[in-house]
Design goal:
Number of helices: 8
Number of strands: 6
Number of domains: 1
Largest sheet: 4 strands, mixed
Distance between the termini: 62 Å
Oligomer: single chain
Helix content: 40-55%
CATH topology: Glutaredoxin
Structural class: alpha+beta
CATH architecture: 3-Layer(aba) Sandwich
Order of helices and strands: HHHEHHEEEHEEHH
Length: about 180
């Protein structure tokens, strides 16, 4: 064992300088608290809240517990502060468990369960599915699967928030953005 009083201080300083820096994880934020909004399961009330807050609409993230693509979205995309800030500025953000028995009130005021709402009303079979609804509860855009990365997810947000969905598909919008 090396006695500390015999170990040169300059060697300690040199070894500290040569160590690689630790990666910064401070930039990431938990999507459960920084991306998604809390909800009591009444989508009509969520529309009203979105109107009051000046949002463009409501985004539903259809998911299930054992979905690896849902987990990847949360760990690599929805945890990014710029993504969280942009989407929270423009949308009410809610999750729907496609296997869930939790009761909710849909956009039309009908009582149902998350499972029935997802599978019967919106035909969600695989997850994730990202669906955007205008302030009247009408679905205006739908994306099936995980986005490639945060950049593509931000493009999806812009596609809806800036109302590009009125002029064509998301694929066409993405192509046009690459050309700029």
């Amino acid at each position: 064992m090396i006695r500390p009083d015999l170990f040169p201080r300059w060697l300690l300083l040199l070894s500290a300088l040569l160590l690689p820096p630790l990666p910064s994880v401070a930039a990431e934020r938990d999507p459960a608290t920084h991306f998604f909004h809390d909800s009591f399961g009444n989508l009509q009330e969520e529309l009203e809240t979105a109107r009051e807050e000046g949002k463009k609409g409501v985004m539903l993230f259809f998911e299930m517990d054992d979905c690896p693509f849902c987990h990847r979205m949360k760990q690599q995309v929805l945890n990014q502060p710029d993504v969280q800030d942009y989407f929270r500025k423009h949308f009410r953000l809610l999750t729907i468990d496609i296997e869930g028995d939790v009761e909710l009130v849909d956009f039309d005021g009908n009582e149902t369960t998350e499972k029935a709402f997802a599978t019967k009303k919106h035909r969600v079979r695989a997850t994730p599915v990202i669906a955007f609804f205008d302030l009247d509860g009408k679905r205006i855009a739908r994306y099936i699967g995980a986005t490639r990365d945060a950049r593509e997810f931000m493009l999806l947000g812009r596609y809806v928030a800036e109302e590009h969905y009125k002029n064509g598909s998301f694929t066409r919008f993405k192509r046009a953005q690459r050309g700029q």
